[in-house]
Amino acid sequence: MTPKLIVMLTHHDKTVMNAAEIFELCKTAKADFWGFKEVGMPLSEMKTLCSRMKEAGKTTFLEVVAYTEQECLDGARMAVECGFDYLMGTVYFDSVADYARKNKLKYLPFVGKIIGRPSVLTGTIQEIIEEGQELSKREEVFGFDLLGYRFQGDPLKLNREFVRQISKPVCLAGSVDSFKRLDEVKDTDCWAFTIGGAFFEHKFGDSFLEQIDKVVTYMEREEKG
């Protein structure tokens, strides 16, 4: 199965100010999954943009880079208020998982120790996998937001082993910024992956829309090959 591209209208872990304008210009692109972060845009504009994405038939994702329980809960409430389909990120807390379940929000928490913003993943591969296996037992957890390429270790080994040993969907998020990494993402057989900053830095071509289509086509071609 081809990993799904989640187009993130974000750069340096923040939603870009012209996110709504970019979406309107690119909503006919081949990607069905779209999202942005919990910071960088007023809540009223977040609601409007999420609504426009859903009106265009897109599946929507809010990624929350937060570490305290209160901040994570606030992010979950924001996701529900805006009408997102998925909540990505946050350190796992039972309170956040329960809130997501009650509000029919699919929850993909971070695993491992996350620090900073832009975020960095620390810990050992075994610790991260064991945490994922333990959290996989919870029905409130849809899957995981794995910051594989932000890992302060061997990202290829982490991505490969985590996906192989975890039974739930895994999204590789952050720093997918080259065709070489697209090949690596494909090889993991993960469920999805995000690209945000790399599009703004034109790592895959010129226009935003062109880059989205190029990435989706590349991943599909690899499957057929």
What's the quick description here?
By secondary structure, the chain is an alpha/beta fold. 43% of the residues lie in helices and 19% in strands.
CATH fourth-tier homologous superfamily: Aldolase class I
Q: What's the arrangement of strands in the largest beta sheet? A: 7-6-5-4-1-12-11-10
β-strand amount = 15-25%
Helix content: 40-55%
Mean pLDDT rating: 96
Low-confidence stretches: none
Q: Total helix count?
A: 9
At CATH's second level, what is the architecture? Alpha-Beta Barrel
Structure notes:
This protein has about 220 residues and is an alpha/beta fold. It has one domain (about 5-225): TIM Barrel, CATH 3.20.20. About 45% of the residues lie in helices and about 20% in strands. It has an 8-stranded parallel beta sheet with strand order 7-6-5-4-1-12-11-10. It has a two-stranded antiparallel sheet with strand order 2-3. Strand 2 (about 10) and strand 3 (about 15) form a beta hairpin.
Q: Which SSEs are present, and which pair or pack?
A:
Elements (H helix, E strand, L loop, with lengths): L3 E5 L1 E2 L2 E2 L3 H8 L6 E5 L5 H13 L3 E6 L4 H14 L3 E4 L4 H9 L3 E3 L4 E3 L4 E3 L2 H11 L8 E3 L8 H11 L4 E3 L6 H10 L3 E4 L1 H4 L7 H17 L1
Parallel strand pairs: 1-4, 1-12, 4-5, 5-6, 6-7, 10-11, 11-12
Antiparallel strand pairs: 2-3, 8-9
Helix pairs in contact: 3-4, 5-6, 6-7, 7-9
Name some characteristics of this structure.
single chain; 225 residues; alpha/beta; TIM Barrel; eight-stranded parallel sheet; two-stranded antiparallel sheet
